[in-house]
Amino acid sequence: MIPGGFSSVADLKTAASTDPLIASHYQGFDIERAVIVIAPKSALLYASYRKGGNTYWTSRPIHIGAGETLATDGRNLIRARCGNRLSPRRRLPIEVRSPSEAELDAPEVSLPPAPAVTLPDSLTPVN
Q1: Cis peptide upstream of residue 115 (ω within 30 degrees of 0)
Q2: Measured CA distances, 60 to 4, 36, 78, 99, 109 (Å)
Q3: Smallest Cα–Cα separation from 49: which of 85, 13, 9, 4?
Q4: Rounded distance between C-alpha atoms, residue 13 and residue 116, angstroms
Q5: Pairwise CA distance, residues 43 & 71, whole Å
Q6: Distance CA 7, CA 88 (A)
Q7: For the residues of 5-37, what is the DSSP string, one character each?
Q8: pTM, to two decimals
Q9: Which residue has the higher pLDDT, 107 or 74?
Q10: What is the rounded average pLDDT of the residues 41-54?
């Protein structure tokens, strides 16, 4: 939902105030009560995701690991790494072919290739 995710409630608020799709999808999440938390244990939860100009939910729950950073308003959860909402219950709409868990865990931003550099003779690259 949010390329690169968010690291603070302020980032979450900015995304919701500048992106109409996110604002619509986050309805029902009380952003004014949001706090950043760490998942105390692993869980299987359904996740929302963005595809084009639409928002969908996974057809199967995905693994959310212990220690993952989340935002909560006390009732709802949002995954900090991507801004996807999480739910213990199946939600709609579901895409005919929803992405795999690996696709959902892939970074949402692609970094350009690093430029080639020439190392000074006194430095040796570490493998």
Answers
A1: no
A2: 23, 25, 17, 10, 24
A3: 85
A4: 38
A5: 15
A6: 23
A7: --SSHHHHHHHHHH-HHHHHHTTTS-GGG-EEE
A8: 0.78
A9: 74
A10: 93
